[in-house]
TrEMBL record:
<keyword id="KW-0408">Iron</keyword>
<dbReference type="Pfam" id="PF00034">
    <property type="entry name" value="Cytochrom_C"/>
</dbReference>
<dbReference type="GO" id="GO:0046872">
    <property type="term" value="F:metal ion binding"/>
</dbReference>
<keyword id="KW-0479">Metal-binding</keyword>
<keyword id="KW-0349">Heme</keyword>
<dbReference type="InterPro" id="IPR009056">
    <property type="entry name" value="Cyt_c-like_dom"/>
</dbReference>
<dbReference type="InterPro" id="IPR036909">
    <property type="entry name" value="Cyt_c-like_dom_sf"/>
</dbReference>
<protein>
    <submittedName>
        <fullName>Cytochrome c</fullName>
    </submittedName>
</protein>
<dbReference type="GO" id="GO:0009055">
    <property type="term" value="F:electron transfer activity"/>
</dbReference>
<dbReference type="GO" id="GO:0020037">
    <property type="term" value="F:heme binding"/>
</dbReference>
<feature type="domain" description="Cytochrome c">
    <location>
        <begin position="16"/>
        <end position="103"/>
    </location>
</feature>
């Protein structure tokens, strides 16, 4: 029984929620959040192109200022450009914690 208890504890502490959030942020289901939202959720220019002689900039919005509720809601909405990732609540929480940790160290 003592060995089993040690094994369970070891598994729970193998990776932190923030480390898991980092893994998901960088590559959740193919294209990582980092590609459009930047290293710390600050937003990032994705591309620029001309349409009818007008320069169009496609920008990933900043997500580092959102509350958890707004963050989770945005992930559940259909967007024209952003893929739908079908993340679980715990995955969303881990990503949110990772973004918060990146912005608290600045």
């Amino acid at each position: 029984m003592l060995i089993f208890g040690s094994f369970v504890f070891a598994q729970e502490s193998f990776i932190t929620s923030i480390e898991y959030g980092k893994m998901l942020y960088e590559n959740p289901r193919g294209i990582g959040c980092v590609e459009c939202h930047g290293q710390a959720g600050e937003g990032k220019r994705i591309t620029e192109y001309y349409h009818k002689k007008k320069l169009i900039t496609l920008q990933g919005p900043a997500i580092n200022h959102l509350t958890f509720e707004a963050f989770a809601k945005a992930l559940g909405e259909n967007k024209k450009v952003m893929p739908k990732y079908y993340l679980t609540k715990s995955e969303i929480q881990a990503i949110f914690e990772y973004i918060e940790s990146k912005n608290s160290t600045k």
